[in-house]
Amino acid sequence: MQESLPGVLDHRTFSRVRVDLGRCDICNTKRAVYRSQEAQAGICEGRYARLVKEENAKAGVR
Description:
alpha+beta; three-stranded antiparallel beta sheet; about 15% strand
């Protein structure tokens, strides 16, 4: 499983989609349910949650 690089992807550019995007571009195991046109990437729920968590940690939110 690959880890995303902190700060490379911005969770605010991702939106949830209902169409089949295939597998997550980061972990390549789970179904991609978020898509970023800007980053040209599709990610799974877990990776999206991790992006939000990283951003919240930087902002001092627990």
